[in-house]
Input
Amino acid sequence: MSIVSLTPFDLALAAGLIVLLSIVSWAMHLQLERQLIVAAVRMTVQLLLIGLVLKALFANVHPGWMALMATVMLLAAGREVMGRQKRGFAGVWGFGMGTLSMFISSFAITIVALTVIVGPDPWYEPQYAIPLLGMLLGNTMNGIAIGMDRLTHAAYEQRTLIEGRLMLGQSWSKAIEALRSDSIRAGLIPIVNAMMAAGLVSLPGMMTGQILGGNPPMEAVKYQILIMFLIAGGTGLGTMTAVWIGSRRLFDERHRLRLDRLKIK
Amino acid sequence: MSDGLKLKNFSCRSVKAVDLQVVPGQAIGITGPSGTGKSLFLRALADLDPYEGHLALDGEAAAHVPAPQWRRKVALLPAESAWWEDTVGGHFAQVPQGWLQRLGFDEQALQWQVSRLSSGERQRLSLLRLLIQQPRVLLLDEPTANLDAENIVRVESLLSDFRVSQRPAILWVSHDTEQLKRWCDPIFVLAEQRLRPLNAPSRKTPLQQGGAA
Output
């Protein structure tokens, strides 16, 4: 099977959809046109750049370059997690918690997947390592962002309730238990739904891409199944870690609710 | 040692350098204009807010007691009570015989939905929930503010019996100075971060009258 290569003209045609959407948005006073165009331009530039970076990485396989690339991806994801929270933790904790949790879950799972399951040679072969890590980070980031946003938002809304429990002599852990479970659940719902719908309602992007790229469907499906398992594991572990650290950080050593540690909005 | 609740050079967000001792069985009253931080003072005593200085119960410093344990002994009844389970009963391990009736409820009350409680019912039930834990110190923040006359009598009567049998130290915050005079000696006014004695002759406390209310 040969790949039908896309020309810039093909992409420009597709971009016409964004233009059309912007015109409609302007006509209907949705005030979305600016954001739409900025997002579309950003997406195009970012992806073209990463294409160049990947091309260079594939040509120069070296663990050092891989480590640098992975670090940049991790930091970008950490920033994204922070940006998506209405009332996240202030200061270095806000960035650190999400980033650390993503590091623990995504990196550990990617490394296990590369060394034990997929087994390319060398194990850090960028053609496998970068897409795997990217997908894990992207999904784990979602889970953590949703979980942390739910946790901090609910703690703020329900402070009377939490403190009421503390007043009766409950430990911090007991007082936040229900919110913590809710937050973890909220973070995991997207991936659970994605697994439920996979193949029935939606053809996952990675698999579609592989098939479009000319791979046999069954190979694409097997990789998609692997990815789904890894993503579920990564999102689950990452969200649990982040929400747990976050819930601990909401209280001090005297079991006081410390909402002053959240950003002021 | 049972020298009750002892504060030495105690400062928090709303008071500065307070020295105070409340011995078991004693009740002291705190009144004063809204917004001077009476509730904040009680919160700090329950170790829910940071404080400076010395805070001890029966000779044991609060800092040396795990916070949850401290709060079970030095129990705060907030003006607005918190309920997290669906039913009233979900908040009680067990209720001593007759206590619900003393506050004007029957046993059915444990099956009630919390969302359907009136503010007065919440207030009475939250007092019950607190007393069951048999605290050594009661920090009462406007405990009868939402109650009608009949229920004020019920609450005070239960508190009075609890006071006789358990001899807790009590800090009672209220705007109702008549009520404070019935219960407390001395009574302080909290203003400008100080506790000043209320200039009024103190009367006998219910305890000295034999616990009747």
Chain A has nine helices and no strands.
